[in-house]
């Protein structure tokens, strides 16, 4: 099962669950898995696990590929905490969940930090990420994006989008473009710089294509 199939299967599964209104899009799941795979991430922190869509997707990817990922998340919403054991199934006991970032206890630096919800302690993120780590912001989350970029003044930023619409089997209207992710390379290597500029170029091209379609 490749990344595409893991993402599609996960999205379909979570689309049928209570609390699905704010799950990551199918495209966002694919984009996240591509980053996890490319950088062979071993330690991942997710801020705002929610009902567990991204968590499940990454842990399923880990299981399918026989790779071990140390996964820690934060969540304090009562509904989410109640449903997570059932929704995450066999993966629930393989992760750790803390109420907020300030409560996270780990001796490891994280290769990837996923921002999928609000956390008033997000400013502490600097002490948790590895030297060449990547921060993935699901969706827009402009306030958190600006806060994080201010913490890492030497970072590079790119947005990953698609010109594909949402699938009909999801909770979001298929009349809308599928939402993407934002990447922050906190201390970019040469290859990360090239990757970042590639995403910038492709995203700019996609926006031009959208404009062209809308005008014709």
Brief description of this entry?
The chain is an alpha/beta fold. It contains six helices and seven strands. A seven-stranded mixed β-sheet has the order 3-2-1-4-5-7-6, with helices on both faces.
Topology:
Layout: H1 3-15, H2 26-38, E1 43-47, H3 53-64, E2 70-74, H4 78-88, E3 95-98, E4 110-115, E5 129-138, H5 142-151, E6 156-160, E7 181-185, H6 190-215
Parallel strand pairs: 1-2, 1-4, 2-3, 4-5
Antiparallel strand pairs: 5-7, 6-7
Helix pairs in contact: 1-2, 1-3, 2-3
The SSE string, one letter per element, is HHEHEHEEEHEEH
Q: Give the fraction of residues assigned to helices.
A: 25-40%
How far is it from the N-terminal to the C-terminal residue, by CA?
A: 39 Å
Strand content: 15-25%
Shape: globular
Describe the structure.
- The protein has a seven-stranded mixed beta sheet, with helices on both faces.
- 39% of the residues lie in helices and 19% in strands.
- The protein is built from six helices and seven strands; from the N terminus they run ααβαβαβββαββα.
- By secondary structure, the chain is α/β, with parallel strands linked by helices.
- The chain has a single domain (3-215), classed as 3-Layer(aba) Sandwich (Rossmann fold), CATH 3.40.50.150.
- Helix 2 crosses helix 3 (53-64).
- Helix 4 links the parallel strand 2 and strand 3 (95-98).
- The termini are far apart.
- The relative contact order is 0.14.
């Amino acid at each position: 099962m490749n990344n595409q199939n893991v993402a599609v299967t996960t999205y379909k599964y979570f689309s049928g669950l209570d609390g699905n209104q704010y799950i990551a899009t199918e495209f966002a799941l694919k984009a996240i898995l591509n980053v996890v795979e490319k950088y062979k991430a071993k330690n991942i922190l997710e801020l705002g696990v929610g009902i567990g869509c991204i968590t499940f997707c990454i842990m399923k990817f880990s299981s399918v590929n026989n790779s071990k990922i140390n996964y820690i998340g934060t969540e304090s919403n009562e509904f989410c905490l109640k449903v997570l054991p059932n929704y995450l199934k066999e993966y629930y006991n393989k992760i750790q969940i803390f109420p907020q970032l300030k409560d996270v206890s780990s001796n490891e630096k994280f290769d990837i930090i996923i921002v999928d919800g609000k956390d008033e302690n997000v400013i502490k993120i600097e002490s948790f990420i590895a030297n060449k780590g990547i921060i993935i912001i699901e969706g827009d989350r402009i306030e958190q994006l600006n806060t994080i970029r201010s913490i890492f003044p030497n970072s590079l930023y790119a947005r990953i989008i698609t010109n594909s619409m949402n699938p009909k089997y999801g909770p979001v209207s298929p009349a809308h473009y599928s939402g993407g992710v934002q990447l922050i390379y906190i201390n970019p290597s040469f290859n990360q710089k090239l990757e970042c500029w590639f995403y910038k170029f492709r995203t700019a091209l996609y926006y031009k294509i959208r404009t062209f379609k809308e005008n014709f």
